[in-house]
Amino acid sequence: MTGSIYDLGYRRYDGPRLGRRHAVASLVRHSLRSVLGLGRGGRAKVLPLLCIGMPAVIAVLLVGIRALAARGGIDSSEIVPGHEGIYPTIWVFPVLFVAAQAPELLGRDQRYKVLTLYFARALRRPDYALGKLVALSLGVLAILLVPHLVLGVGSILLTTDTTRAIGEELGVLPAVFGSSVVIAVVASALALAISSLTPRRAYATAAIFGAFIIPGIVAAIVIGLDLGTASQWIALLDVGALLDGANAWFFGVDPSTAAALSGLSTGILLGGALLVGAGSVVALVARYQRIQA
Amino acid sequence: MTAQGIAPGTDVPVVRVGSLTKRYGTITALDDLTLELAPGIVGLVGANGAGKSTLIKILLGLLAPTSGEVAVLGIDPTVHGTALRQFVGYMPEHNVMPPDVSATELVAHLAQLSGLPSSAARERTSDVLRHVGLYEERYRPIGGYSTGMRQRAQLAQALVHDPRLLLLDEPTNGLDPAGRDEMLQLIRRTGREFGIAIILASHLLGEIEQVCDFLVAIDGGRLLRAAPLTDFTTETGILRVEVEHGRDALAAALRARGLSVVDSVNGDVRSVQIALDGLEPYDAIRDAVAELGLPLILIEHRRHSLEDLFREPLAVGDR
Fold first, then answer.
1. Do A22 and B3 touch (CB under 8 A)?
2. Quick check: helix, strand or coil at residue B248?
3. Measured between alpha carbons, how far is B56 from B59 in angstroms, rounded to an integer?
């Protein structure tokens, strides 16, 4: 280490000070880079690459199967999933992603008390929490939208009637964006709300997996026991079923998971998903209002 | 100049608080504090738990006062906290930096959160890290830094957005004596040569004496005194007469000659303290010492020391 302090001058700064909005935008950009593993070591890139890459690969395979089927003169639209089937097929990757990255996004700053430095700057406590939510949601959105894009481009390229295919793809855009945004924000908010409670990464990751998986198992068992119509409401505890239901609502199809098949309408499942999202955001912001820094 | 249209006033006190009170439940951390601070290096001194950190957090707008008024650079932190914090730098008491990023990365990121555009943030990060004496190591993860380097990086993040006011909470915490001197010298230069107003909270009086020109002493959340440092170290109205032995006999003899002998402080068994209240004491002292045949060591005007602030006031009485 250098033994003494050299002074080569200190310059004053008279340039612009861009205020709170700039501060929050910077936080979002920085956090997004960190959830995607950019500017970090190689190991930090493995999981984001896997979570974004695998769904894309799956989408490529779906397009390939369609192409093969089309060459054989078979209409594969009944068996090979379209846009509505993307989330039910790849749902494990968004869950994996938020379970790994949400604790990383919040835990470091709590563990090393960096929050003190953040809160001494041009942003407020809720800005910090919401900025992290936007960043994680954008990460999940990338996971969800890339396979939709692959599928869309594939569909357009495969068909002879390009104009019609483009029209169809444009028609499904609102459902693609609507479902993806809802799923991304709800999953991110829930994962962050859980992560905000502990600086310990391992606990938070386990708790997030638990929150996404265990209620689904319980719900499947309860519904399987066929205890009567009241038991169908247990599906509302299953976040996975809620997100699947929300996805189905946007595309106007039947939900795919067992719990979602409990008989609840997709509208109710979407409402449940939005409720979980809103509750998580409130819990997350409340936690950061109170957290010591 | 700022996005929010709130900018520090010119010709305003750096800090102005009026009847500031902060209670946590039944605990009163700050009690009716009224204070006005001009630019310069101000020492905020008090024992641990005196309310220093609470005051700093209120000045930053991170804590709301229970009652009272507060303005920093002419801005009310309870209303315009985010705008104000673009012009205030804060170095917390403890190490609060993540070990897995480099100083460059952390400081540049924090600069943007203080409102600097990204190009200016990068430029100033490299300037400021050089200013505090971090060179090649600034690209290495902070986890590998020595305590001294960490403290400098922590000072750099408080300076990177060129604040008008710098709040330093125990900045020499955990440093060895050499590192301590370097940090204090750096703080003094930052305040004197670059004209940044500094409030330096410390429980170490020696540190305060080395760098500050104004002193605010608080104890139990109350203002003890706020005055230029020189006021604290001026001569007192006390003459100290030290003898090798025979202190009590000398005290009695001096009382008999009509001088006001004062209770000695902290078990000083070798000297007599005399309040100077008009009488010329020197002849009487000479006579008394000669009469008793005592070995006289010194006669001096006692100076105030900062420690006096936190002691019971001297009982100046005719005893």
1. yes
2. helix
3. 5
